Structure to design on (546 residues):
């Protein structure tokens, strides 16, 4: 059995940056340091940072002093305003690609477009983007439409959804490609794996949007695949009779986790586990 | 046999306006009056105006004095500049909806977009629009793309072509719906006819883009159809065994021509012709 790791793996730029920002803050004389929501969508990495002193909170409630870190996915405008109002210290770890999408939404809003965001409604990045579009125009069916996508969107899905909007009555539609390059590269690398593997292991947070999209691509291909967070979830029987196993991972999955998974699969193969 | 005329027929706003502008100019003390290309794409109407003194020219060559009328389709920027330079008197009969498309192209050009025009390359409207995009950027594959369409485009075709562009690598795509309302209404009215007629007669200039698109819609539907300019082209055998005949017409077809066609079909039916 051969094991092949996707051409694009390890932390993406925005995740690496957010972790470094958090670590740097944790090194200093520590007041209380909070992250508003998990700083990245990888529970194992978040757990590690927690051990170093980074506490995850879901709201500002009860925070009186200390430092609040905005996660890589950004935060809704009303939260940022409350932080400012309450003079809480803030460190912003929002991914610059997410910021780019936020700036586009701000501009579209200013210029009177009806704004459509393509993404997971419940995801913090999308919630933060949406907060910038409010209040919605009273006439929701504006004829000048601006469209952005979650940075971790699948481009094919994005285009398909845009196709539907084009059929509406519009005077102008302005589409921004806010899908980050890392997402595109990782999806391409996963598609490449699918071409010559008979099983794919997708590693990454179960709450990670970009990881879930990688898994979605695998499922749609018909090639067998499993989504795991750590090597402990691997099962020997998955690999019986497989000739080539591919490993792909989300933008918030550490290289070390990819290595752990590869090692365990090797052991299954050798029969030492 | 029943005869049904499309819900939208007769001159469109821009054609009516252009003809009125020409007629008004012809009423005055006449210097020589030229139209740069046919003022509208209906040879019979153009012939009538010719009898009243409106001469069609294909270029400014040889024009020394008199008045030049810009046709409803507009004229390329270099022609307008030459008219200005040579101090020729100008009357602009460009359709306001075409002007709207021209203004959008100007703005896109100013803001650095790669501009795509969806339409018939050889049509004067498209040639005029294209003249505003020149010189093309050295790097033709810009990532900021602006798209407009000929005002008489078929929206379905427009959307289909946009779909292809969306698959390219882009940072922003800005799509303007420059298809005029009259085009949309006439196409809808033609589609409605197709639902309950077993033959459609399409009336309009053979050089008329919007008429040709109406005929295209008929041909694609599978219902039998013929494209004529005048009633003299009608043939009795077309109507044998037909139960319901629909008549639709382009934006530059006079109501009187629709009436002539209807009368002749009636006579075929009664056997008086």
């Amino acid at each position: 059995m051969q094991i092949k790791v996707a051409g694009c793996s390890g932390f993406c730029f925005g995740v690496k940056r957010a972790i470094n920002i958090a670590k740097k803050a944790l090194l200093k004389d520590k007041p209380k340091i909070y992250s508003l929501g998990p700083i990245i969508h990888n529970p194992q990495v978040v757990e590690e940072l927690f051990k170093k002193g980074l506490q995850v909170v879901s709201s500002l409630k009860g925070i009186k002093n200390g430092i609040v870190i905005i996660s890589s996915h950004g935060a809704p405008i009303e939260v940022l305003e409350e932080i400012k109002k309450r003079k809480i210290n803030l460190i912003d770890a929002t991914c610059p690609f997410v910021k780019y999408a936020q700036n586009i939404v701000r501009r579209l809003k200013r210029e009177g477009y009806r704004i459509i965001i393509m993404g997971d409604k419940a995801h913090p990045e999308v919630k933060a983007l949406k907060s910038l579009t409010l209040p919605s125009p009273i006439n929701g069916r504006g004829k000048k439409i601006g469209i952005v996508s979650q940075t971790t969107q699948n481009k094919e899905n994005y285009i398909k959804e845009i196709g539907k909007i084009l059929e509406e009555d519009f005077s102008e539609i302005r589409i921004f490609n806010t899908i980050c390059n890392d997402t595109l590269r990782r999806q391409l690398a996963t598609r490449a794996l699918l071409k010559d593997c008979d099983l794919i292991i997708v590693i990454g947070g179960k709450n990670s949007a970009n990881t879930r999209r990688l898994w979605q691509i695998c499922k749609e291909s018909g090639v067998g695949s499993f989504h795991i967070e750590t090597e402990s979830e691997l099962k020997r029987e998955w690999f019986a009779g497989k000739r080539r196993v591919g490993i792909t991972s989300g933008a918030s999955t550490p290289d070390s986790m990819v290595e752990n998974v590869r090692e365990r699969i090797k052991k299954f193969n050798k029969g030492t586990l």
Q: What stands out?
A: The CA atoms of residues 83 and 236 of chain A lie 49 Å apart. Chain A has a mean pLDDT of 93.
